[in-house]
Amino acid sequence: MQTNKSPKVTLVGAGPGDPDLLTIKGAKALASADVVLYDALVNHRLFQYVPGKTKTVFVGKRKGFKAFAQDEINELIVSHAFSYGHVVRLKGGDPFVFARGTEEIEYIESFGIPCEVVPGISSALAVPASQGVSLTRRGTAQSFWVITGTTSQQKLSKDLYHASRSTATVVVLMGMSKLGEIVRLFRNEGKGAMPVAVIQNGTTQNENVGVGTIDTITYVVKEKQLSSPAVIVIGEVVRESHKLKQYYRQAMAVSG
Predict the structure, then answer these.
(1) How far is residue 84's CA from residue 67's CA, in Å, rounded to a whole number?
(2) What is the side-by-side order of every strand in the sheet holding 115-118?
(3) Using CA atoms, how far apart are residues 238 and 243, in angstroms rounded to an integer?
(4) Is 34 one of the catalytic residues?
(5) What share of the chain has pLDDT > 90, as a percent?
(6) Where residue 243 falls among pLDDT bands split at 50, 70, 90?
(7) Least confident of 129-143, 146-160, 186-200
């Protein structure tokens, strides 16, 4: 298909999962899209903002299966922009938090195609907040780390070694397959009693939560059958969450 429309791309952050957490600007971008290329973690209820005539293309990853490699996604964005006009690249969370937004923009703009970014609410912030976990709190945590659990080489991020030695709250995305390694890191730093929350499918109707400590969290995850996508939160702020206090007391009673 060829069109007389000028090519344009908008990277839109879809938010953490709850469709109501899409920004107004993101909804407006979807409403004006000629094509939407979307990832696996995008809530399909967001398609209510997409016109019926608009083409939608799944380019995400599910359970280790990639529909397209990143280079192929880049090419699809550009080819669809030239063929259809306005392409919305819909990405879970925020386009610039472990989402390769910069790589896509660099490729798109190398063809002279204008590109706009609509920030999204990152699961790193929203998912803990939805469970009453304040990543910073006066007298408890002065800062927080947001770290990918698994690098592009499928290794544990080296930043976790540094984070395990800090007093900051640590938020780990894409870390469930490395949970055992993460636990060993913190245990080696004498932090076996450090509170931990694992929040699966955060902000959605399928949300599931497990709370424990570094010493117990792997057992909690197994018992509750928690898996990806999940956010791991490590720090004393977990203990102080008004929503998770009861979970934490129960977990401590069992471990005691």
Answers:
(1) 21
(2) 55-58, 35-38, 86-91, 8-13, 115-118
(3) 9
(4) no
(5) 83
(6) confident
(7) 146-160
Cβ density class 193-215: b for 16+ within 10 Å, e for less: ebbbbbbbbbbbeebebbbbbbb
| Catalytically annotated residue among 61, 66, 158, 243 | 61
Answer for the pair 171, 233: CB distance below 8 angstroms, yes or no: yes
Handedness of CA 214, 217, 208, 101 (dihedral sign): positive
Is 66 an active-site residue? no
Report the distance separating Cα 128 and Cα 116, nearest Å. Answer: 28
Least confident of 57-61, 65-69, 84-88: 65-69
- Known catalytic residue: 174? yes
Q: Which helix (H) or strand (E) holds 208?
A: strand 208-213
Q: Which of 18, 34, 39, 94 is catalytic?
A: 39
Helix H or strand E segment including 89:
strand 86-91
For residue range 142-186, list pLDDT tens digits in order: 999 999 998 878 888 999 999 999 999 999 999 999 999 999 999
Tokens of 185: 């890191």
Which candidate in 91, 174, 191, 194 is catalytic?
174
Is the backbone of residue 132 left (phi > 0), alpha (psi -120 to 50) or beta? left
> Do 141 and 195 touch, CB atoms closer than 8 A?
no
| 70-84 and 101-109 helices, crossing angle to 10° | 50
Contact 102/91 with Cβ under 8 angstroms? Answer: no
